[in-house]
Automatic annotation (TrEMBL):
InterPro entries for the chain: HNH, HNH_nuc
Gene3D superfamilies: 1.10.30.50
Domain HNH nuclease: from-to ranges: 42-97
CDD domains on file: HNHc
Protein name from the UniProt record: Putative HNH nuclease YajD
Lineage of source species: Bacteria, Pseudomonadati, Pseudomonadota, Betaproteobacteria, Burkholderiales
Organism: Mesosutterella faecium
Comp. bias (Basic and acidic residues): 1-22
């Protein structure tokens, strides 16, 4: 994976990422508080092992390592959608971030 920032701006990028994560935790809670505890971590690792490539990148003719397990239909706390593996897809972090932003209005997008 390539770095997002040149050596001159790498430290500033780390600071921005830390600020973003702190802000996310304040508004949404920790991963565990949102239902992504040890059970999720275990199942996520198993899923990524059996689905190692990003589905969105594959659709675009690229082979990219998957790093995130996405809920195709956002679960919004619904345990049935949360744990239904037919509602999961493997994505790279970039594709997952783009999809999530589109769904929740991030990056100035309207909410779907």
């Amino acid at each position: 994976m390539t770095d997002k920032y040149c050596s001159r701006h790498k430290e500033k990028g780390k600071e921005l990422a830390a600020e973003r994560e702190a802000r996310r935790k304040r508004f949404k809670g920790t991963a565990s508080q949102r239902g992504y505890g040890s059970k999720w971590q275990r199942l996520r690792a198993q899923f990524l092992k059996s689905h190692p490539l990003c589905e969105e990148c594959k659709r675009q003719g690229r082979l990219t390592k998957a790093t995130d397990v996405d809920h195709i239909i956002p679960h919004h706390g619904d345990p049935k959608l949360m744990w239904d593996q037919s509602n999961w897809q493997a994505l790279c972090h970039e594709c997952h971030s783009r999809k999530t932003a589109k769904e929740n209005g991030g990056f100035g997008n309207s909410v779907l």
